[in-house]
């Protein structure tokens, strides 16, 4: 058996662990067995990961954008410990508990009006599934079952379950292998690149044309607001989001905003939709919801949607995860929100944005670099060609930084609590990686 303890592991223990991991454990989007060993993390504190040999790396990924407060934060540790002394879990069917109620109160208070109803799920992917089901069941309850398709844009990513895969990019996304068995939805081209770019009237006309052509069969529009995440790390102008809200209102279509990656301040506003000053009919939250401590998601909707669903034949939303509203997750989520609101998170995110912008200045002109973009606490270097993950990570680690690239993208979403020096280290790693694209033999 592997000895699990804090601190360093012996080389023998580490080798045994990695051998077993490689032969028996799947990792995200990885073959089996994995050709390259995963890095063995034995502890994490602040914004640093400690490897088995004692190496420390600044986590430039926030554990896939979730650990916005870093690791082992005393307030969050205390919230979990307090709740653990009361109950770790209880079924949510027919029961409720203070952590769930308190968290729901906070979410209704923080999210845009008129979102008033909260459905707790156990992952971001399931949260999007719930949103899709809400939209479909709403129209079925209204006697309009023909409204069963969704309008979205290419370049999007919404999760790995089947409903979610059907609204991810069907050509360049990660799920094209399943296209023959997924629901067929309506796709607009990806929004033109550039948060500050002037809106393209031709693109706006295309959105309106698609909605008009399919209005009678559309249940909802679903997009990631302002920032497309794992589908390409693309930033687009808020005007396009406002246009989608107007289109939805014109045709009586529901607007679903997937804020799982963009929520809780990541883009420089509390919610991605705040950039466009619009409110959705359904909103999906996850990732940073619990500060990266536990898996949890929440799907919020308006009174209109909730009452419309329950007025139908089923009389209820037909979904109910086993670990719905888990008390541990709910308690730490409320503590994470409290922590976010008591710190000046805007200043933290603005500082990260300023440092990334300054340190990456001019990198877009380097050989092999297609684009460099920064928004809030997000920095992206896009290469002309797919990057070699192992070599990119080797460069990052030489700067004491952990990054996880994919496709042509090397990016960072650091914890908000990174110091200026730590953020500068991350930016320096990104700059060195960008410079490596133009080296002979790459």
TrEMBL record:
<dbReference type="InterPro" id="IPR005814">
    <property type="entry name" value="Aminotrans_3"/>
</dbReference>
<feature type="binding site">
    <location>
        <position position="287"/>
    </location>
    <ligand>
        <name>substrate</name>
    </ligand>
</feature>
<keyword id="KW-0032">Aminotransferase</keyword>
<keyword id="KW-0949">S-adenosyl-L-methionine</keyword>
<feature type="binding site">
    <location>
        <position position="64"/>
    </location>
    <ligand>
        <name>substrate</name>
    </ligand>
</feature>
<comment type="subunit">
    <text>Homodimer.</text>
</comment>
<dbReference type="InterPro" id="IPR005815">
    <property type="entry name" value="BioA"/>
</dbReference>
<feature type="modified residue" description="N6-(pyridoxal phosphate)lysine">
    <location>
        <position position="287"/>
    </location>
</feature>
<keyword id="KW-0093">Biotin biosynthesis</keyword>
<dbReference type="InterPro" id="IPR049704">
    <property type="entry name" value="Aminotrans_3_PPA_site"/>
</dbReference>
<dbReference type="InterPro" id="IPR015424">
    <property type="entry name" value="PyrdxlP-dep_Trfase"/>
</dbReference>
<dbReference type="InterPro" id="IPR015422">
    <property type="entry name" value="PyrdxlP-dep_Trfase_small"/>
</dbReference>
<feature type="binding site">
    <location>
        <position position="157"/>
    </location>
    <ligand>
        <name>substrate</name>
    </ligand>
</feature>
<comment type="function">
    <text>Catalyzes the transfer of the alpha-amino group from S-adenosyl-L-methionine (SAM) to 7-keto-8-aminopelargonic acid (KAPA) to form 7,8-diaminopelargonic acid (DAPA). It is the only aminotransferase known to utilize SAM as an amino donor.</text>
</comment>
<keyword id="KW-0663">Pyridoxal phosphate</keyword>
<keyword id="KW-0963">Cytoplasm</keyword>
<comment type="similarity">
    <text>Belongs to the class-III pyridoxal-phosphate-dependent aminotransferase family. BioA subfamily.</text>
</comment>
<comment type="pathway">
    <text>Cofactor biosynthesis; biotin biosynthesis; 7,8-diaminononanoate from 8-amino-7-oxononanoate (SAM route): step 1/1.</text>
</comment>
<dbReference type="GO" id="GO:0004015">
    <property type="term" value="F:adenosylmethionine-8-amino-7-oxononanoate transaminase activity"/>
</dbReference>
<feature type="binding site">
    <location>
        <position position="404"/>
    </location>
    <ligand>
        <name>substrate</name>
    </ligand>
</feature>
<feature type="binding site">
    <location>
        <begin position="124"/>
        <end position="125"/>
    </location>
    <ligand>
        <name>pyridoxal 5'-phosphate</name>
    </ligand>
</feature>
<keyword id="KW-0808">Transferase</keyword>
<feature type="site" description="Participates in the substrate recognition with KAPA and in a stacking interaction with the adenine ring of SAM">
    <location>
        <position position="29"/>
    </location>
</feature>
<feature type="binding site">
    <location>
        <position position="320"/>
    </location>
    <ligand>
        <name>substrate</name>
    </ligand>
</feature>
<dbReference type="InterPro" id="IPR015421">
    <property type="entry name" value="PyrdxlP-dep_Trfase_major"/>
</dbReference>
<feature type="binding site">
    <location>
        <begin position="321"/>
        <end position="322"/>
    </location>
    <ligand>
        <name>pyridoxal 5'-phosphate</name>
    </ligand>
</feature>
<protein>
    <recommendedName>
        <fullName>Adenosylmethionine-8-amino-7-oxononanoate aminotransferase</fullName>
        <ecNumber>2.6.1.62</ecNumber>
    </recommendedName>
</protein>
<dbReference type="Pfam" id="PF00202">
    <property type="entry name" value="Aminotran_3"/>
</dbReference>
<feature type="binding site">
    <location>
        <position position="258"/>
    </location>
    <ligand>
        <name>pyridoxal 5'-phosphate</name>
    </ligand>
</feature>
